[in-house]
């Protein structure tokens, strides 16, 4: 029992139950309880969850990455432009986007670890650079801010099967979400590198004195968050058969919020990728639940903010009870 109470994701699990019960009672008859309803909020949660898992690991390592939202747009547009304008194979375009994301993540990590500047500032600058570059290059090449035509790209069928197919009414992205969450949990809890992540975020000086390559750990985590953004971009580009320069806007804050909902501390050194996945599930249920509840779209963000603050309060209350139970 004590081991369960010590788990950081316990609060998020309680939040998931609370949010589900609320919408089941308030909008259950409108489709929230149906299989199709579950498929919609799980699909939303899966794409955010893929990003939140990587972001939570970076936060545990003591850093933030605000550039992941603009990275989604940059990678998606890279894929679309290479296929639509240059006639590249879709797989080759995805590979180039992945390399681009890894390079940006490495630069972010190197600047943060070499200059000691706050990652908040460094990645905020990267956000603006990527966002402006994506809009500027796309307008320069196409004169538009949206590029389509991916369905005619070489090897689109195999990419669609992997990134945009469905198992019944459920999106294949849910399997990706579950698989990557399990893999990340194993890395974080069962490997030496996972211990290094906790050490780099919780007590970096002590970890460094014990031989932990703190800078290398942080650079690796920056590259991981960027690569996860590229994966989201690939899902969206294949699913919508094109890209938009504004796609991914605000996703960096949603991912951080999901990680916090899942029990990851903003100060680093403590958290859980399973909690981040559950935080994304809360976000998906709230986002889709208010649609089933028939709330006026003018009040969408207000209602969303209230529900999310409520979930955080439930999380905080449960964690407080956990601390008292340990005393």
TrEMBL record:
It is found in: Cell membrane. Part of the binding-protein-dependent transport system for D-xylose. Probably responsible for the translocation of the substrate across the membrane. Its main location: membrane. This is Xylose transport system permease protein XylH. It is a multi-pass membrane protein. GO terms for cellular component: plasma membrane. The keyword RNA-binding does not apply. It comes from the Bacteria. It comes from Stigmatella aurantiaca (strain DW4/3-1). Pfam families: BPD_transp_2 (PF02653). Keywords: Cell inner membrane, Cell membrane, Membrane, Sugar transport, Transmembrane, Transmembrane helix, Transport. The chain crosses the membrane at residues 48-74, 86-107, 119-142, 163-189, 259-287, 299-318. GO terms for molecular function: transmembrane transporter activity. The keyword Plastid does not apply.
